[in-house]
Sequence to fold (194 residues):
Amino acid sequence: MSEMEIALSIALGVGLAAAVGFRVFLPLLVVSIAAYTGRLELSESFAWLGTLPAMAMLGVATVAEVLAYYVPAVDNLLDTITTPTAIIAGTLVSAAVMTDLPPIVKWTTAIIAGGGAAGITQALTALIRGKSTVMTGGLGNPIVATGELGGATVISVLALFAPVIALVLVVVFCLFAIRLVRRLLSRSRENAKP
Fold:
């Protein structure tokens, strides 16, 4: 495997992991469909992900997760549950698509970069949803949920076809989200001053 192929494999894994931070099951469903149709090669130990039963299970889980994020109060509860889940799923999806790497390199990269990307993305979206809940009484949360769904979809599909661009998009999102959260926190502090 050439250095370029290794870099693309890692970019694919990290891009998909970051998408997991938006929605846990949607990127896994995209990977399952891509593997089932022959578009994506998976590591041997993750071949089950490209089967019809896995695709059906992930499809049901994706629909349930997407709908649950549109239910007030449930969306905030899901954020507390999905943060550790996203880190684990981000690690696994990264490892699944990083083929032909030595196990130590694959798992180290998957845990640090994949799990880290998923955790950062999930934490930022949870902060944005939390601020939305406080500022709008939860009425703005469906807009946040729609943005997350769009982000998960775009980044997942883009990671398959242009992994480096997907990775750049994730970095841009994280920078934008950090600036947004900082701005919202500074406004909250200013409003709290007597």
About this structure: Residues 3-192 form one domain. The chain has a mean pLDDT of 91. The chain has seven helices and no strands. The longest helix spans residues 103-136.
